[in-house]
Specification:
Helix 1 packs across helix 8, helix 3 runs parallel beside helix 4 and helix 6 crosses helix 7. Helices cover 47% and strands 15% of the residues. Strands 3-2-1-4-5-6-7 form a 7-stranded parallel beta sheet, with helices on both faces. It is built from 8 helices and 7 strands. Keywords: Oxidoreductase. This is 3-oxoacyl-[acyl-carrier-protein] reductase FabG. Belongs to the short-chain dehydrogenases/reductases (SDR) family. It holds the Pfam family adh_short_C2.
């Protein structure tokens, strides 16, 4: 694989939610930039397809199929990174789910599932990754939050709560570990061309039903591509952002700036 600038050459990265969407887009870009990858997702078939695509292009990666909400998945991913590549430099906590429902109808089990996948998973991954990053004298953690951590709509009870919690977790880790060489930042995507949003459009009767909403909410007038989001993640993962820690980067086409 020919790299563009090799901004991640010799670095090892774990990416969760790597089988599709932002996770897949970032995995492909990271591989182009020279990173060794550990790809994590619960969807085994799609995960292996992404891994095969990276390997066909000359990239190096291994996969872990499992729920990010379980400690054993975090343990396996971090152990695999160290045993295969000798160290861990980057953690991109990206996996997430978005069940919709009014709080009065929302099942307690659904609430627990969303918080486990969207927020607890990041706690678990960070808990296992940080000791290895300390051994490597530093690292970068990027957590996927959402524009909906601060601006929301009816029906996103657990999703908005989980995404807001990610901001707090990110800031705490940054304050605790930046002096020790570990940076931690979060990103807040707006509308992005992901499988999740395609399913949302289908439930509304097609993409032509969804786009008027996007144009109203996101001044850019369209969804971002996963590749466009991945470039922001690449910046935060690379040494180019060495003094950036504790930040919350909006990648939303000015959605969070609009009235």
């Amino acid at each position: 694989m020919s790299t563009k600038q090799g901004r991640l050459s010799s670095k090892t990265a774990i990416i969760t939610g790597a089988a599709s969407g932002i996770g897949k887009g970032t995995a492909l870009l990271f591989a182009e930039e020279g990173a060794n990858l550990i790809l994590v997702d619960i969807s085994e078939d799609k995960l292996n397809e992404v891994a095969a695509e990276i390997r066909e292009l000359g990239g190096s990666c291994e996969v872990v199929c499992g729920s990010v909400g379980l400690m054993k998945t975090a343990e396996e991913a971090v152990a695999l990174a160290v045993s295969t590549y000798g160290k861990l430099d980057i953690l991109f906590n990206n996996a997430g789910i978005m069940p919709v429902g009014d709080i009065l109808d929302y099942a307690e089990e659904t609430w627990d599932q969303v918080l486990q996948v969207n927020l607890k998973s990041m706690f678990l991954m960070c808990k296992k990754a940080i000791p290895e990053m300390l051994k490597a004298n530093g690292g970068s953690i990027i957590n996927t939050s959402s524009v909906m951590a601060n601006l929301t709509e009816p029906g996103y009870t657990a999703y908005s709560a989980s995404k807001a919690g990610i901001i707090g977790l990110t800031k705490e880790i940054a304050v605790s570990y930046t002096e020790k060489g570990i940076r931690c930042n979060s990103i807040a995507p707006g509308w992005v061309e992901t499988d999740m949003n395609v399913k949302l459009a289908d439930s509304m009767g097609g993409m032509d039903k969804l786009y008027p909403i996007i144009k109203q909410q996101q001044p850019l007038g369209r969804m971002a591509t996963t590749r466009e989001v991945a470039y922001a993640v690449l910046f935060l993962a690379s040494d180019e952002s060495i003094v950036v820690s504790g930040s919350h980067l909006a990648i939303d086409g000015a959605a969070s700036a609009a009235i």
